[in-house]
UniProtKB/TrEMBL annotation, chains A, B:
CDD domains for the chain: MADS_MEF2_like
Start and end residues of each K-box domain: 83-151
Parts forming coiled coils: 55-110
Matching Pfam families: K-box, SRF-TF
PROSITE patterns given in the database record: K_BOX (PS51297), MADS_BOX_1 (PS00350), MADS_BOX_2 (PS50066)
Record key words, sorted: Coiled coil, DNA-binding, Nucleus, Transcription, Transcription regulation
Protein name: Uncharacterized protein
Organism: Zingiber officinale (Ginger)
Length: 151, 151
DNA sequence: CCGACTATCTATAAGGG
DNA sequence: TCCCTTATAGATAGTCG
């Protein structure tokens, strides 16, 4: 479609390549839109130029279209998803981990500044209770070992 | 381009809509391929027909293209990613959290079964050390409070 | 580098088997 | 329903300003 026929191979001349890119890209987008309207299709079109610039068209919403695509391809092992869910989970895990770590540090006797006397008393009680449990356990375990060893 | 001009609106007749869909889809894919080759562009095209069937074309690899697209759109608040990375992070966090939780439980005097006498002794030492720290801290804090209250 | 022009090529609407 | 044909609308390569 033009003054002369062309063969489909990469256009060497950069200037005319860019001109052609601009013209044909416009045409492609137009055709995509027409097809979407005429045939009630859902279409997503993503183009990166050779210079890395992004052009896109979506008859609806690119994000939801990509999600739909991912789901449709799931059985074909495509591992693309809306990260929002996983990201939320990761953020929540990070938070939980942080909280537990803070707590754990206190039980290790670290970072006690900022605790009230009441907090410290609670912590002491907990540690004493744990200690009692551990000593009891140790004693019974040692007895068992001892009985084995002494027989 | 055909025997008659058409207006761009949804084709009512289902049969001719499907015929047009088939023809124009083929044409669109052809144009997309040509553009990719002629201008060295990276192109991804996703089409869902009105019946929900998926058609796709990618000049390279759809997955990597979608990832690239996601990254390019990051600043524009698009929340689509290859989940693999985030998933890995989440899995790692889950593991770390689990380990810390186990450790923490032992310091709470829970789930002590399975620990050797030596393990229990170490735990006891740690708890005693923590306890000393906490008591020391509590005493000095109580003194400070006390001095405030008693003045 | 961009837009306009237009001759020419391509896609396709309508029709037929 | 699908494939083929063909007249015609539409896209665009080369050119000019």
């Amino acid at each position: 479609m033009g003054r002369g026929k062309i063969v489909i191979k990469k256009i060497d001349n950069m200037t005319s390549r860019q001109v052609t890119f601009s013209k044909r890209r416009t045409g492609l987008f137009k055709k995509a839109k027409e097809l979407a309207i005429l045939c009630d299709a859902e279409i997503g079109l993503i183009i990166f130029s050779d210079t890395g610039r992004l052009y896109e068209f979506s008859s609806s919403n690119m994000k939801s279209l990509i999600e739909k695509y991912s789901k449709a391809k799931e059985e074909n092992h495509l591992i693309v998803f809306a990260a929002s869910d996983v990201k939320k989970e990761a953020a929540s895990l990070r938070q939980q981990f942080h909280n537990l770590q803070q707590n754990h540090r206190k039980m290790m006797g670290e970072e006690l500044s900022g605790l009230s006397v009441a907090d410290l008393q609670n912590l002491q009680n907990q540690l004493e209770s744990s200690l009692r449990g551990v000593i009891m356990r140790k004693t019974s375990a040692a007895l068992k070992d001892g009985s084995k060893l002494c027989l």
